[in-house]
């Protein structure tokens, strides 16, 4: 191998290690803090179920009233961890490119973990409600009464999008300043509305089940979720490739 080829190969290996390091730091941070969040969600849902069983004040499952907060929690983690991790990543010899790649991979992995946990909890709740003799329903999502695979896929896409949107928020203020950053918030809001509409979950369009939804609407919704992740990934890449570590607000 020539000297140039050897240097190029060493550069690729260094970039892979740097990307993996960023991915591990971000993923571990979100999963560790997320474990506490899910513990709180489960406890809250159990309390609501106990109240429901005692007073009969709610119909259907209780998780549907608490799951919507997951996206905003992950949004906040994306904002905080991206802001705090980038300076350390660069100081350790990483590049903005490897940080962006690690951030995107981490958001998809954490989104997948969240999607699976959500689907599992809903399945457990449905079985528990059936064992007790209560009526169970899930009034969110692309498939009436829920579907393990579709719910997991939907939550994966929406959580990944929210994490990336959270990461883009401070970068937008860094790149565009106070006024431009405020306008950037409005642009991100459109992406939030779009992904919630596409997968039909959350607080934007999520409270009315798509009773007549068929395979076509489901595929269209999941395709919209994939598009939202792609747009958010592109935005993260464009912003963080040239972001300054010095504040531009003032």
Task: Describe the 3D structure.
With 250 residues, the protein is mainly alpha-helical. It has one domain (3-240). It has helices at residues 3-55, 69-91, 96-132, 148-199, 215-240. It is elongated, with a radius of gyration of 20 Å. The model has no long low-confidence stretch (mean pLDDT 80).
Keywords:
elongated; membrane; 5 helices; transmembrane; mainly alpha; 250 residues; transmembrane helix
Helicity range: over 70%
> What class would the helix/strand composition place it in?
mainly alpha
Radius of gyration: 20 Å
Order of helices and strands: HHHHH
What distance separates the N and C termini? Answer: 52 Å
Largest sheet: none
Number of separate strands: 0
Q: How many separate structural domains?
A: 1
What is the 3D shape?
elongated
Poorly predicted ranges: none
On the 0 to 100 scale, the average pLDDT is 80
Number of helices: 5
Percent of residues in β-strands = under 5%
Could you give a short description of this structure?
With 250 residues, the protein is mainly alpha-helical.
SSE blueprint and pairings:
Elements: H1 3-55, H2 69-91, H3 96-132, H4 148-199, H5 215-240
Helix pairs in contact: 1-2, 1-3, 2-3, 2-4, 3-4, 3-5, 4-5
Transmembrane segments: 25-52, 72-91, 103-124, 148-169, 176-199, 219-236
Keywords: Membrane, Transmembrane, Transmembrane helix
